[in-house]
Design a protein that fits this description.
This protein is of the alpha/beta class. The protein contains ten helices and 17 strands. The structure holds adenosine-5'-diphosphate (ADP) and 2-acetamido-2-deoxy-beta-D-glucopyranose (2 copies). This is Carbohydrate kinase PfkB domain-containing protein.
């Protein structure tokens, strides 16, 4: 098994990501405009975006060699998106570039007062279809891969890739923002799930977040863990453990989460992680699952340093991809991912703040 730090860069595990790549046009405003207002920006940035492209950029800066599968058009934006990914060390040789059409892009309004980011997304054309990828090219993309990641977009092609990865026994990580077409089948093949705060309840129709996490582990027997990211409140992770027949005490999952949350210390600025012991978590009316629950705190960023949360979730996922490849324990992975996401939040756009492996902010993780 590889240790955390001994793997030389050129032998870093290969990961493959499939999903969105686009161009973001970010305008920072002092206050969000009203309809028909004419206002000035205080800062403007044009930068590559898209969930998968952002997360893989993050993983590349940390030292992985990611391959991206996505689609852009051969226009100015598309060429810029590819160049930027290449410059960051993401392998774009499996990109589909259509001669005609247009590359997807997002207008993003960053309100520096309320610290919100409002996105207006325009899908690319023509949309990606499984026929865009030959089976040969897919097989070369997956060659030697340790992990395949999906951002949940473009489900038909995602499923085409996931079925192949599944047959090859390559682990699958999915980032789920909300229930989408095709996601259910993708989730049945998923090993690691990272999702938004609202996803667990939206997908399971269960009334509390912690019970919804139990329900997710019960519905998806292949899943090893689920993490919900909660913005400035941090993250919660439920990891499945194998019930070895020992008599494990059954505990209500809502009260477990409450008691772990109480143990977090508000005076610590750096991200922390409070683990439960291996427990049989009971979700009222749903069932029970053997596992460990972790409460991760986010970094406490001073308001003057909090610039933009665009892509915070993508940075978190990029760091989780790295942590899985390097066999980090959950107790190291959650603070690490929160640290990486916090660094991202201190600069404008989804990528400017993404830290490199040697960044002082990551020194305590001995990468
Ligand atoms: N305001 C913030 N302060 C500190 N960390 C943050 C903040 N917003 C996001 N993060 C970090 O980024 C992670 C993902 O953020 P979240 O808002 O949940 O995702 P998304 O960008 O997908 O909406 C959080 O778990 C946290 O670690
Ligand atoms: C993109 O268009 C340019 C000309 O504008 C051409 O030289 C190039 O080969 C095209 N690339 C692809 C992948 O179609
Ligand atoms: C599949 O991969 C897992 C590790 O990810 C390994 O433990 C298992 O033995 C593999 N199974 C097969 C059939 O190769």
């Amino acid at each position: 098994m590889s240790s955390d730090s001994a793997v030389p860069f050129h032998r870093s595990p290969i990961i493959v990501g499939f999903g969105g790549a686009c161009v973001d046009i970010l305008a920072v405003v002092a206050a969000f405009p009203k309809p028909d207002d004419k206002i000035r920006s205080t800062n403007l940035k044009i930068q590559g975006g898209g969930n998968a492209a952002n997360a893989l950029t993050c993983a590349a800066r940390l030292g992985l060699k990611p391959r991206i599968i996505s689609k852009v058009a051969n226009d100015t934006q598309g060429r810029a998106a590819l160049e930027e990914l290449e410059a960051d060390g993401v392998d774009t040789s499996f990109f589909v570039v259509s001669k005609e059409g247009c590359t997807p892009f997002s207008y993003i309004i960053v309100d520096s007062q309320t610290k919100t980011r409002t996105c207006i997304f325009t899908a690319g054309y023509p949309p990606m279809i499984p026929e865009d990828l030959s089976r040969d090219s897919l097989l070369s993309a997956l060659e030697g891969a340790k992990l395949v990641y999906f951002d949940g977009r473009m489900h038909e092609t995602a499923l085409f890739i996931a079925r192949e990865a599944f047959c090859k026994n390559i682990s699958i990580l999915v980032d789920a923002e909300r229930p989408r077409e095709g996601l259910d089948e993708l989730l049945t093949m998923t090993d690691y799930l990272v999702c938004s705060e609202r996803f667990p309840q939206a997908w399971t129709e269960v009334a509390s977040l912690s019970r919804a996490l139990v329900s997710i582990l019960l519905k998806l027997p292949k899943l090893k863990f689920v993490i919900a990211t909660l913005g400035a409140k941090g993250s919660i992770m439920l990891e499945k453990c194998f019930d070895d027949g020992r008599q494990i005490e059954e505990v209500d999952v809502d009260s477990s989460l409450e008691s772990l949350t109480k143990q977090t210390d508000d005076s610590i600025a750096t991200p922390t992680c409070i683990p439960s012991s291996v427990t049989k978590f009971r979700a009222e009316g749903i069932g029970s699952v053997c596992g460990r629950l972790y409460v991760g705190t986010a970094e406490k960023i001073p308001p003057s340093e909090l610039i933009d949360t665009t892509g915070a979730g993508d940075a978190f996922v990029g760091a989780v991809l790295y942590a899985i490849c390097k066999n980090f324990s959950p107790g190291k992975m959650l603070p690490f991912a929160s640290c990486v996401a916090a660094a991202k939040c201190k600069a404008l756009g989804a990528r400017s703040g993404l830290p490199y492996r040697r960044d002082p902010c990551l020194a305590s993780f001995s990468l």
